[in-house]
Write a structure and sequence with these properties.
Strand content: 15-25%
Structural class: alpha+beta
Bound molecules: ligand K2U, nickel (II) ion
Shape: globular
Distance between the termini: 44 Å
Number of strands: 8
Length: 192
């Protein structure tokens, strides 16, 4: 049994920091049908994102804002994550299990300010090339298979989270010699 029951409030002390082995592990597939324990943990992860994006609550619990949180970031060796972001039209929340990118655009994008991470308590400068559009096959919290498309900022968030499930940190994707060098012969542009 893990501690993430429905009323549990995830705070920064629950978020694994870089250096922990679990952040470098390829995490285990979630068993279907989805157990109550896994559903509860996923709900706690989404609630963290909501809390962290609410200024009063974030202040009260000293939460860093997040638009995504993967299970291994709270110490669970499971292929699942929660995401909460505004995709330009609407506020989108998702909790996905066993996600797989099944297709993606050739063109790429990057955040001009670079990326951050709840598990990385330092500034790491540099561009992180991401696919502009992705199509993802995953399972929702009820165990139903879903096929979802993401573009722009949402695509960046989802790729950042799926990377976590594969033990990849955002700075692994920054050019080693010149952090602001973009990949050649790739159509890549700043998200804004
Ligand atoms: O996985 C995580 O650590 C959450 C990441 C997700 C993320 C980082 C960079 C770009 C997209 C997603 C961050 O906590 S989200 C932090 C943040 C919050 C608001 C806006 C941008 C980044
Ligand atoms: Ni991260």
């Amino acid at each position: 049994m893990n501690k993430f029951h429905p009323e549990y409030i995830i705070t920064m002390k629950d978020i694994v920091q870089e250096g922990a082995k679990i952040l470098r592990k390829v995490t285990e597939e979630v068993k279907l049908p989805v157990s109550k324990e896994d559903q509860d943990a996923l709900q706690c992860m989404l609630q963290y994102l909501k809390n962290s994006q609410n200024p009063e609550v974030a202040k009260k619990y000293r939460l860093r804002p997040g638009s995504g949180l993967s299970a291994n970031q709270i110490g669970l060796d499971k292929r699942m994550f929660a995401a909460l972001f505004d995709d330009g039209q609407k506020d989108l929340e998702c909790m996905l299990l066993n996600p797989k990118i099944i297709s993606h655009s050739l063109n790429m994008i990057y955040l001009p300010q670079g990326e951050g991470c709840l598990s990385v308590d330092r500034d790491v400068k540099g561009f992180v090339p991401r696919y502009e559009r992705i199509k993802v096959k995953a399972y929702d919290i009820t165990g139903q298979e879903v096929i979802l498309k993401f573009k722009g900022y949402g695509s960046i968030v989802i790729q950042h989270e799926i990377d976590h499930l594969n033990g990849i940190m955002f700075y692994d994707r920054i050019h080693k010699e010149n952090p602001f060098k973009l990949p050649e012969n790739v159509d890549i542009e700043s998200l804004y």
